[in-house]
Description:
This protein is an alpha+beta fold. The chain has helices spanning 10-20, 35-63, 89-103, 105-114, 116-119, 128-156, 165-196, 200-203, 231-247, 250-254, 287-290, 315-319, 347-353, 379-383; strands spanning 303-306, 310-313, 324-331, 337-346, 361-366, 374-378, 388-393, 396-397, 407-409, 422-428. The protein folds into two domains: 24-253, no CATH class; 287-428, Sulfite Oxidase, Chain A, domain 2. A five-stranded mixed beta sheet has the order 2-1-10-5-6. Strands 3, 4, 7, 8 and 9 form a five-stranded antiparallel beta sheet that branches. β1 (303-306) and β2 (310-313) form a beta hairpin. The longest helix has 32 residues, at 165-196. It starts with 9 loop residues before the first helix and ends with a strand. This is Molybdopterin-dependent oxidoreductase.
Amino acid sequence: MTRPDAGYGRPARLWRALDRARPPLPRFRSPLRGPWLTSLLGLVLLVGLPIVVVTGLLDRVAYGAAPIPADVGFLQLPPFDWPTSPAWLFRLTQGTHVLLGLVLVPIVLAKLWSVAPKLVVWPPARSVTDALERATVLLLVGSILFEVVTGVLNIQYDYVFGFGFYAAHYVGAWVFTGALVAHVVLKLPLMVRGLRSRSLRAELRTPTSGSEDDPDSDLVATDPRPATISRRGALALIGGGSLLVAGLSVGQVLDGPLRGTALLLPRGRTTAAADGGPNDFPVNRTFVASGIDPAATGSAWRLELSGAGAVRLDRAALAALAQHTVALPIACVEGWSTEQSWTGVRLRDLAALAGVPEPVAAVVGSIEQGPFARAELHAGQVLHPDSLLALRVNGADLSPDHGFPARVVVPALPGVRCTKWVRTIEFRSVR
């Protein structure tokens, strides 16, 4: 095949030099690859991945002033008071973000398999336009693999990164979003043509013996092997993989009897007690892992309130105040959630006790040290009638793993901001 620039001096010599420098590249011989299959997988991802991105950004808003992520410069979202109603809002957004992200992994891998011939073409680019397109593909593939790998590792294991996961995952999401938009702008017409090249209904009726390769495409193998599976079989395999992932994960979001089936979210299966008692439900960080001296939560513990004045209360004094019981979910960044019945003192009652009946914010301090030792709540979260400093759960005292002697529980608030082992609450009349 004659190149457009053949015979034009230096460019022609460049092409010949590149051809001579061609590295050994893999050969792809499956007859299933082609515009139709690639476009169909791309359409599914074009619907699903924006939902994952949007729910992830909403979850970032839900964290408010928490250090998740750290300083990300101009990528920082504008401040926004996360609503407290419905109480299951964060449970929905975070559960969707993690569960849908996991379900799409087999489809992402299948899409990468379908375009593998284009990822290893030589030379990598033949024009400036081609180089720009390849750059968007490189960013797209690199960023989605980074998001998948770091996201899955964060779900499966305690912190294993040598960098700030939250900031890196957040910036990676923006890189992926930009690359996706650029890629869609460049490839949408090709995707539409690819979808029209074959009939989905016809392909679902076509056996392996009738699975012909697509003509006139750089995705099609130049020397294809006979098909060993039909396109409908490939779609069933990919879809079955996604259904399997969903079946092994959804129990963490729905809670209840299905929790035992959620094998892909082991961090959320950790329980504070294995006896089926009132405190037998998941935790992300145990009392032992927190590194707190047990004496700090013993009889000498006091809650310190500050506002217009300072108030110190021991646990018996807190228990003597008006108690409120409410069923609220705790939802974690790893995607798991659980709903329990909490009993304690309303935060707005404690604000009034501190002389700030209409606070604009509250800062909760924990005995625990580290990035989550402090959490800021906005006025709506403090004044909501179901926002509690909880002392009991399911009719029993909190266990150490669940925040004894007291923890914050607020509707729709991420679990990591429902501070455990509370020591101080500062109610502010100005922000």
